[in-house]
User: Fold this.
Amino acid sequence: METIYIAFLGFGTVASGTYQVLKQQEEKIATSMACQVQVKKALLRNRGNYVKTAHHDFELVDSLDAILTDESITIVVEAMGGVDFAKDCIEAALKAGKHVVTANKILMAQNGEELTNLAQSQGLALYYEAAVAGGIPILESLRTSFRAEGLHSLSGIINGTSNYILSEMTDQGLSFEEALQAAKDKGFAETDPTNDIDGLDAARKLAILCRLAFGMTIPLDKMAIRGIDHVTSEDIKNTSTLGYLIKPLATAILDDDGALSVQVGPSLVPKNHQLATVTGPMNAIYTRGWASGEVMFYGPGTGALPTGNMVVADILKIVDALVHQEHIPALSRYHVPLNLSAADREIFANFYHFKLLDRDKGLFKLTALFEKYGASLNQLTPIGRHHVLAISQAMTWQDSKELIAEIENIDGISIDRIYPILGQ
Ligand SMILES: NC(=O)c1ccc[n+]([C@@H]2O[C@H](COP(=O)([O-])OP(=O)(O)OC[C@H]3O[C@@H](n4cnc5c(N)ncnc54)[C@H](OP(=O)(O)O)[C@@H]3O)[C@@H](O)[C@H]2O)c1
Assistant:
C-alpha cells in the first residue's frame, strides 16, 4: 500500500490533535483511502522541551529546509500561527512543490488571496478548513454543497470566547469581568483575549467566509467591527425583557443589487431563533439561501481533536486526489469585484434604551422623530420613571445615524444603548 508522508510546522494544540486523529484512525484511513498517511517530520523551535514531554514516531527537525528538501514529503501542515514566518514557510513549501494545509486564520484573512493564487499557479492545494469555526466543516460545505447556491446572508457565532462570556452573563447573571475570568479559568479565553473580545478574531473569520460564500475579498478596515466589552448585565436584562439575547454575531448580508454589508459585534437575536440555542464556547454559522432556505452549521470552534479532525479532512482531500491521480480541487474559483453596501442602503432594526427627563413628553418627541424617518418605535417598555426600551422598525444605516444625531440635540433625551437586531 502506498504511503503519503506529511510534515508539521509547529507541534502544539492543533498539530497534536491532528496527529492523534491520524494515529487513532490509521486503519480507517488506510481502508477508505487505499493508502497510508504518515507524519515524517515536525519543525520545532524548542526541540528539547518537546522530546521530554511527548511520544512521537516522527523526526524532530529545526530547519524548514529539512522538510522542503525531503522529496518523500508531499503535504506540509502549518500549525504554528503568527503571520510573517508562517507566510514565508507556506510560500517556500508551495514553491518547493508541497501541498499545504493550515489552520492559520490571521494569515488566511490577511494574505489568503495572494497565497491561494500562488498555490493555484503551482497546481497545488492550500486548504484551511480549521481556520474558521475550528471543528465545523463550513468551508468545504460552501465549496461543495453551496457551490450553486445564491446565499442572501450568513450570520455566524464564530468566536467561542465571546460567546462563552455573553452566555455566562445571560445564564449565570455574571458581570463582564466575572464572565471573562470564568472563561480564562475554564480555558475558553487566552491569557490575552483582546482580539476575541474586540471582535477582530471574528472579523478575520468573516472575511474568509465571505470569500467563499460571496466571492468577495473584504479588507478588515472596510468592516464595521465592535467588541463585546461594553455589554453590561443591565443590557442583558433589558434586551431579554423584550424577548432577545445578545450574541456575538458576524454578519454578511447581500442586497438585491449584489452589494454586501458586513458587520461584527454584539447583536440581538430573538429568543426563539436557532442562533439563540448556541451557548457557551460553541460556534454556529446560519445561512439563508435562495434555494437552500435556512441552514445552520453547529459545533465546537476550538480544541485539539475537533480542529485536528478538520486538518485531517483537508489532508485526506489532497490524498484522495493524489491516489486517484486527479486534479487538486481549488477551494474556490468564484470571485466577484468587491461591492460593499453604501450606508444609505444597509437596513437594520435597532434596540434602543432611552433616558428621558420627562417620560411622556420625551416619548412624544421620539415617536414624531422616528416617524419623520419613516420608522415606528415598537415594544415601548418603560423601566422606572426615566427609562424606556424600544425596538425601531428597520431603517437605513445612514438614516439611523442622522436620527441619532438629532436625538442627541434634544434636551432631556439621551440614548443609553443601541444594539442592531439580527438582519434578514
Ligand atoms: N487551538 C485551537 O483550537 C485552534 C483552532 C482553530 C485554529 N487554530 C489556529 O491554529 C494555529 C496553531 O494554533 P495552536 O493552538 O495549535 O497553537 P500552539 O498550541 O501555540 O502551537 C503552536 C506550535 O507552533 C510552534 N511554533 C510557533 N512559532 C514557531 C516557529 N517560529 N518555528 C517553529 N515552531 C513554532 C510552537 O512552538 P513553541 O512550543 O516553542 O511555542 C508550538 O509547537 C494558529 O494559527 C491558530 O490560530 C487554533
